[in-house]
């Protein structure tokens, strides 16, 4: 409708008469000028009315489109709302069915227990009577576990004490070895201090005997660690092995020092 109206306006605009030109003679009569001007004015008024009608029709068309769009949105929202309400109703009915089954099972159990009182009382009495043996078995197992745990803790404590004692012996052995090596380094010291070297040799022999003793203790400690679980004893076993190897190495070095003293003709 709007395009037809605008086309009509355009055709009317093309047929519009031209206004009176300024080329007319000033001396023409007033009646002739009015007769020529009135058709142009009437045509201009008609064109203005056509434009106003076209604008009103365009506004009415926009309003109708807005109304139809609004009604479409309302209908869509209503459909979604009804769909949501239907889903909630289905969920409610499903929950009601589950609830009915659950309470039905409970009622069925109560009816069975009421219809068989002898069996029900027997089961209850059996649970009460068997409670004490279960408690006794539990406490016995717990006592054995605690006893085994305390035994392992005691073995670990003794092993740790032995390792610390061996470490102290090795440290003192290193200190004595360093002192004795300083006494054996120079030939001039050997010549001037034969007596001192003899005493040092005896001390070295005593240290060698201590090293032998440490090695034997390390071997015994390995046997004790064999009683422990492998995971807990692996750390102590490696430490004991290192200490035994270190004691053996120091013993060999001290034996060489004693041999060196003997080579100088000093009886040890």
Automatic annotation (TrEMBL):
Residues 1-24 are annotated as: Disordered. InterPro entries: RGS1-HXK1_interactor. Residues 1-11 have a biased composition (Polar residues). Keywords: Coiled coil. Residues 156-183 form a coiled coil. This is Uncharacterized protein. It comes from Carya illinoinensis.
